Amino acid sequence: MCLLRMTRCVYDLLTQPGKMTVPELIRRYGISPRTVFRDLERLRQVGIPVVYDHDQGCFRIETPNGAPNDGDKLLAAGPASPAT
């Protein structure tokens, strides 16, 4: 994943709640569905807690208190610890 696309993806996930579906990510970044899932997994690997919201049918960044897309609390909490 290129650094610019990673940065834009994190920004979009934080600022566009309820809109980051696979088709939307494909459209925004001009990438394949496989690349979307690969990129989201790489974000998780570096500690960005990207989750799929089944109720809204989109991806979002999960914040420490579980509320969707509260960027200030996410930044204050620091990186997520890796899953063991």
Write the layout of secondary structure elements.
Blueprint: H1 3-15, H2 22-29, H3 33-45, E1 50-53, E2 58-61, H4 71-77
Antiparallel strand pairs: 1-2
Mean model confidence by pLDDT? 81
Structural class: mainly alpha
Distance between the termini: 24 Å
Overall form: globular
How many whole angstroms does the radius of gyration measure?
Answer: 12 Å
Helix count equals 4
Tell me how many strands there are: 2
Number of domains: 1
What CATH architecture do you see?
Answer: Orthogonal Bundle
- Strand order in the largest sheet: 1-2
The H-and-E topology, N to C, reads as HHHEEH
CATH superfamily: Winged helix-like DNA-binding domain superfamily/Winged helix DNA-binding domain
Low-confidence stretches: 79-84
Which band does the percent of strand residues land in?
5-15%
How is the CATH topology named? Arc Repressor Mutant, subunit A
Classified by CATH, the class is Mainly Alpha
Main beta-sheet annotation: 2 strands, antiparallel
Percentage of residues in helical conformation: 40-55%
Summary, kept brief:
The protein is mostly helical and 84 residues long. The protein has one domain (3-77): Winged helix-like DNA-binding domain superfamily/Winged helix DNA-binding domain (Arc Repressor Mutant, subunit A, Orthogonal Bundle). It has helices at residues 3-15, 22-29, 33-45, 71-77, and strands at 50-53, 58-61.
Describe the structure.
Helices cover 49% and strands 10% of the residues. The radius of gyration is 12 Å and the shape is globular. A two-stranded antiparallel ribbon has the order 1-2. The protein starts with a helix and ends in a 7-residue tail after the last helix. The chain has 84 residues and is mainly alpha-helical. The relative contact order is 0.18. It contains four helices and two strands. The protein has one domain (3-77): Winged helix-like DNA-binding domain superfamily/Winged helix DNA-binding domain (Arc Repressor Mutant, subunit A), CATH 1.10.10.10. A hairpin with a 4-residue loop joins strand 1 (50-53) and strand 2.
